[in-house]
Specification:
about 425 residues; alpha+beta; five-stranded parallel β-sheet; about 30% helix; about 25% strand; binds adenosine monophosphate; binds glycine; ligase; Rudment_hybrid_motif; Phosphoribosylamine--glycine ligase; ATP binding; ATP-grasp
């Protein structure tokens, strides 16, 4: 199989590495990719949200399968254009990608499917100050204020401070976007990734992300600073509950609406006293959870994604997993997520170190050919072990060997789980 992966982060690097171990993946291509992928795939330039450009590239390569990593091309209709041109695509069409792209659409689908989620109220940009204040006062004492557009987790403020909630709502509205206010969902967060091809839903192992920039969940939200899998603190049967209570009903509802989901349905949940409630859906693999989850998956990943892309998931058979745990830590550039500095030289992370657990996210080559930072999240370091502690130790040992001036990472990824501090 000749496979084209669209995207450029550590998630796409993890997908490429996982597929490179599948004997049926004979030829890997990536667009636009990053500097760390040069040993594993042929790199091509691409503007990721340009459907015509993606089709032209897939034709040039003669791709048997196109795997779309990020949400931006999915929302922009890149999967539609590729499918129309006859390619097998892993990733939903634009109408199905609304499950991530429009929080209002996601709420509507959940309501129709009877899926538990936070109650929500939208405020439109034309609302008066009085209306905004009144809406704010219908929520609290924990406010959840969201930008109803794509903001990669960064458009959300969760706060106990009414003034901060109001300020964020006004800022989003001033930018011309609707605001979504939500009731606060209590309980530890779970990310469950499900392969979906219409109505067949195949779950991967549950993972937990760490979204705040600092230790102890302090500081602003980011795209994700680290993750681990599986989650030993979840009750037995948790994955099956999420599949039957959340993912299958949503997949059925979307199919019934004429926008069947094909690709990766990511359920972001809070596990409360009564079980799972949905915080959000994403229409693609999560980053950085994927890097941990795929490190444990032993089934042939290219064949698995191809089965989802061609509607044959039901025949794929059970997935096989390595016992134990995987953990990933994100090495971020100076200033991330507030004012990221890029262009700094990276030492100790040359391409080709996937087996050591080093994946690239925001990296590039400078004019002198040196490896440099080119984004907020620069590298991902993965550790795998029989215990979560061992996985942690391995990842942190490796990350210490990498040099990037001004960089930072959380030192407490999975620590609450290791110390038994997560309870439901
Ligand atoms: P989102 O972009 O919707 O995933 O939100 C980013 C983060 O904000 C989530 O991962 C949660 O940590 C938090 N969050 C969002 N919505 C809620 C909610 N209704 N209750 C509690 N926390 C939330
Ligand atoms: N890890 C959060 C996300 O991928 O949206």
């Amino acid at each position: 199989m000749r496979i084209l992966v669209i995207g450029s982060g550590a998630r796409e690097h993890a997908l490429l590495y996982a597929m490179s171990k599948d004997p049926q993946a004979t030829d890997l291509h990536v667009a636009p990719g990053n500097a760390g992928m040069s040993e594993i795939a042929t790199m091509h330039p691409l503007v990721v949200d340009d459907p015509a450009g993606a089709v032209a590239l897939a034709k040039e390569i003669g791709a048997d399968l196109v795997v779309i990593g990020p949400e931006v091309p999915l929302v922009a209709g890149v999967a539609d254009a590729l499918r129309d041109a006859g390619f097998a695509v892993f990733g939903p069409n634009a109408d199905a990608a609304r499950i991530e792209g429009s929080k209002a659409f996601a709420k509507d689908v959940m309501k129709a499917a009877g899926v538990k989620t936070a109650s929500a109220e939208a405020i439109q940009p034309e609302a008066s100050d009085e209306d905004i204040e009144a809406a704010i006062d219908r929520f609290g004492p924990n406010w959840v204020v969201k930008d109803d557009g794509l903001a990669a987790g960064k458009g959300v403020v969760v706060t106990k401070d009414r003034a901060e909630a109001l300020e964020h709502a006004k800022a989003v509205l001033a930018a011309g976007n609707p605001v979504l206010l939500e009731s606060f969902l209590d309980g530890p967060e779970v990310s469950l990734f499900c392969l979906v091809d219409g109505e067949t839903v195949v779950p991967l192992l549950p993972a937990q992300d760490h979204k705040r920039v600092g230790n102890n969940d302090e500081g602003p939200n980011t795209g994700g600073m680290g993750a681990y899998s599986p989650l030993s603190w979840l009750p037995e049967g948790a994955t099956e509950r999420i599949v039957t209570e959340v993912c299958e009903p949503v997949a059925r509802e979307m199919a019934a609406r004429g926008c069947p989901f094909q690709g990766l349905l990511y359920a972001g949940l809070a596990w409360g006293e009564d079980g799972p409630a949905v915080i959000e859906f994403n229409c693609r693999f999560g980053d950085p959870e994927t890097q941990a989850v795929l490190a444990l998956l032993e089934s042939p990943v290219a064949q698995l994604l191809n089965a989802a892309a061609t509607g044959t998931l039901a025949d794929f058979g059970p997935l096989s997993w390595r016992d134990g745990y995987a953990l990933t830590v994100v090495l971020a550039a100076e200033g991330y997520p507030v004012s990221t500095r890029t262009g700094d030289v990276i030492e100790g992370a040359e391409p080709g170190r996937e087996a050591d657990g080093i994946l690239h996210a925001g990296t590039a080559r400078n004019a002198a050919g040196e490896l440099v930072s080119a984004g907020g999240r620069v590298l991902n370091v993965i550790g795998v072990g029989d215990t979560l502690e061992e996985a942690r130790d391995k990842a942190y040992e490796t990350i210490k060997t990498i040099k990037l001036e001004g960089s930072h990472y959380r030192t407490d990824i999975a620590l609450p789980a290791v110390e038994g501090r997560i309870s439901i």
